[in-house]
Amino acid sequence: MPFRERHINHFQTLASIRMPRIMRVIAWMLGLGTLAIILFLIFTPWVQTASGFGTVTALNPTDRQQELNALVSGRIKEWYVRDGSRVKAGDPIVKVVDNDPNFLQSLEAERAQAMAKLRAMETAVLTAEIDLDRTRKLLNEGLASQRDLEQARLRIESLRGDTADASAQLNRLDIGLSRGSTQMVKAPRDGFIHRVLAGDTATFVKAGDPVATFIPEKVERAVELYIDGRDIGLARLGDRVRLQFEGWPVVQFSGWPSVAVGTFGGRIVAIDPAAGTGGRFRVLVSEDPDDLPWPDNRLLRLGAKARGWITFETVTVGYEVWRQLNNFPAEFRPEATKANADAGAK
User: Fold this and answer.
1) Which of 202, 264, 306, 338 sits 20 to 30 Å CA-CA off 179?
2) Where are the bilayer-spanning segments (predicted)?
């Protein structure tokens, strides 16, 4: 008789107890589940990522929100737009007039006087040159003295100086008229008036004061992502980025970007060499031409919130869990350092 049976025969109650079938099933399930988890951790690939939050902006700095400034000092006379107005290049925004309503007329009258004075001085110079030639001939004939010749020359030099002063005065008046004629602030290009900053007709503005903010139309969009300093050293120009936009439905798996739904592709085009005020580094991401196009401008506007995942190396799920538990950085890529150094040198 086997040892186990001889041993159990001494314990009749224990021998009568049998393990329930459900417990056997659960034991098998736990064993198989543990084995499946181990195999999953060892053999399943995982794409390492560095995530960050940011906003939608324009790729070209000239396409971003900008201020429209008053070109001359004066009082606001009339607004031609309001918040949200769509304008085309050259459309009037606001008209600023001088406190003196007859300012331009006075400048035009002064210019007319300066022009008449300049013409008179030019005529006087021509006459003085004729007198100088006549005096030189008389001197050769012995009918005039050397002193008369010198006085004629001094007279010409004096008249030429007066003519130069009159010409400078005319130029100053022309500049004043040119500035006075730029009292109308116009749209630099097609776009939208984001906000009107100045007040009504009782508001006085100085030259250079902002009167409105302007957003250009049809700009090339980008996303400003802010990445932790622990991961920024691994990012390089051209890296792929998965983007999630505010208000856009999404199912995101950071480790499996190929199965994510509702995200959009991007590529890194710029990396700041220094951290911002919050200790994070700015990464500029543009639209990936090889991926799905980003939402229309009406659905994805400048300033909208975004979240992005920069994709790095592919590792196993087990390694990634171990890395996250130990708070280690992503897999080091030597070529990333060289690429960023070359980009900085350029």
Assistant:
1) 202
2) 25-47
